[in-house]
Amino acid sequence: MSTTEAPPRHPPVTAAPRGTPQSPLEETGRGTRWVVWLVLALFMLWTLVPLVWMLMSSFKNRTDVTAATPQVAFQPTLDNYRGLFSGPNNLTPYIWHSVLAAGISAVLAVCLGSLAGYGLARTAMRGKRHLAFWIISTRMAPIAAVVVPLFIIFRGLNLIDTIPGLVLAYLTFNLPFAIWLMSAFFAEVPPSLEESALVAGCTRWQAFWTVILPLTKAGLVTTFILCLVFAWNDYAFAVVFSGPNSQTLPIAASQLVTQTGVDWGQLTAIGTIVVVPMMLAGLAVRRWLVTGLTLGAVTGE
Amino acid sequence: MTHAADHSPVLERARPETAKPREPRIGFEGAMMTPGLILLAALSIVPFLALIAMSFSHVRLLGGVSLDLVGLRNWARFFTDADMWMSWLRTIVYFVLTVGLEMVLGVAVALCLYRVLRGRNVLLGLLLLPMFVAPSIVGLLGRYLTDSTFGLYAWVLRSLGYSGDILGSPISAFAAVVFMDVWEWTPLIALITLAGLASVPQSVREAAAVDGAPGWMTLRYIVFPAISNVLLVALLIRSMDAIRYFDIIWVTTNGGPADATKIVPVRLYETAFRFFDLGYAAAIGLAMLAFSIFIARTFVRLLDVRGLTR
């Protein structure tokens, strides 16, 4: 910090424009700046190379995909994607199953979760802390420990290899997540708003529906998207509960790995299809990601 | 971060006056919670009781599900199974390595990102991408990248002088699955830490700079104490997910080679759905559940004590 002698040029209260340090005291030395850029560049490489490689490989033909020396310049082809949607192993039903199972479970989780989350945020009942703990520990329960009893129960109820079965399985982690997260979002809304709505003659439900819910739109969207991502990306439940009538995309991807060999071109194509929508959805709620992923414990930037 | 408004005495007092009678007010919140909680109970308490019952029985699947009580046999096996203890040990090593590396790398990247003033959002957006990749796809992609004949990373390693089969030998396979997990989840730690860094007051850091504190001292005595809560949250969130997910191992090595990557959840899956010994699997599941409840307990207590929410 050798810049201490520089006189402060701007008034101390205003925020500095984007791209300049908040305060002259915060300026970074040249050495530090080099280290920062080096670390970030290396980390960017480490993060992005696999993703870019997956995207590139999905456009390669059979020989380029498994070439002994990595092919960077190649003739792009859509054969892998075309192969996925024609021929005996059509991907369309898998996509449909994934959309249904993940979509329905996310919608149900958000609907029930916002009702229960509101109740949890505003209730003054005595066992509230125990209730909250039960909810959070349900969310944290290891999948492996949940799958075993559910397998027995689903077998009894004939829910194995059905979409409703998968939806229920996904609700085991999405519902407690939605309740907990929505209650964190509702807790941010000052209770005085409802009070003024009640004074103005609303019923409790009207106050919730017309005043509070519109204020937590960001929370609703974030919760929905995170629930969707968790369910869409699930593999551990689907591998146990799904059969030919309900297999999801991650299962389709893993089924390409066979004893006789792997069609890596098609596999990277499925990978791209699975990953891209979730990345777009996730980045769409970037501002609330911190709040969402920490279950409301940390508020974002 | 704290919701002072919730606990303000004025509002507490004001509330019963605006809401007319006391009974229906509780009733409304209760009614709101009911549908969700009933479903949650059906999805958590019923399986939990079933899990306990199963851990004391031999589960038969043929000709309809039936439980034969066998007393403590599953538990006796659980505590005497040497392979099982090795699995727990391996789980702990896997857990410490992945979560530890993720914390160190994530905090380092967040500190660097915080120094970047122009284009931080674009950089962060790109860095976050691995979090949204399905873990099973991460595993399959990892297999593709480390394949000994055509994998990109295997090729890089070969030019650096290492030419073994990465997923074929115990130590390198273990390292590979650790790195795949680190690849996927370091961005989460970086994201949470960055949110914490943004909340360190400007004035405090300025005061440190005015006093002539060198950069590392500011970090050690100003920044880290200020973000310790956030770091703890990140650690707990990551810990709970680290024991939940095992998809990466399941699709890459499936526990092999020579059991080198057979952590507890993988062993449970194998016991339950390959050997169909569901009673023993239930005992393992209960032990895992105890661990995760411990973490949940710590998480909730942290929120209560430090007032991070509610």
Automatic annotation (TrEMBL), chain A:
Say yes or no: keyword Glycosyltransferase present. Answer: no
**Can you tell me where the transmembrane regions are?**
34-56, 94-119, 131-154, 166-187, 208-232, 264-285
| Location relative to the cell | Cell membrane
- What's the short name of a Pfam family annotated to this entry? BPD_transp_1
Which residue intervals make up region (Disordered)?
Answer: 1-27
Membrane topology recorded in Swiss-Prot or TrEMBL: Multi-pass membrane protein
Give the ABC transmembrane type-1 domain ranges: 95-285
Please provide the record's keywords in A-Z order: Cell membrane, Membrane, Transmembrane, Transmembrane helix, Transport
Task: Give the GO terms filed under biological process for this record.
Answer: transmembrane transport
Q: Which GO terms describe its cellular component?
A: plasma membrane
Is the Membrane keyword given for this protein? yes
List the InterPro entries.
BP-dep_ABC_trans_perm, MetI-like, MetI-like_sf
Q: Which family does it belong to?
A: Belongs to the binding-protein-dependent transport system permease family.
The name on file for this protein is Carbohydrate ABC transporter permease
**Source organism (scientific name):** Nonomuraea rhodomycinica
From TrEMBL, chain B:
Keywords, A to Z, come to:
Cell membrane, Membrane, Transmembrane, Transmembrane helix, Transport
Could you tell me the superkingdom of the organism this chain comes from?
Answer: Bacteria
Q: PROSITE patterns attached here?
A: ABC_TM1 (PS50928)
Question: Topologically, how does it sit relative to the membrane?
Answer: Multi-pass membrane protein
Sequence ranges assigned to domain ABC transmembrane type-1 in this UniProt record: 88-299
Pfam families (UniProt xref): BPD_transp_1 (PF00528)
Report the principal subcellular site. Answer: membrane
GO cellular component terms listed in the entry, alphabetical order: plasma membrane
Q: Where is this region: Disordered?
A: 1-20
The portions of this protein that span the membrane are 37-59, 92-114, 126-146, 166-197, 218-237, 278-300
A Gene Ontology biological process in which this protein takes part is: transmembrane transport
Specify whether Phosphoprotein is a keyword of the entry. no
The subcellular localization recorded is: Cell membrane
Cited Gene3D superfamilies = MetI-like
- Record-stated family: Belongs to the binding-protein-dependent transport system permease family.
This protein is called Sugar ABC transporter permease
Originating organism? Nonomuraea rhodomycinica
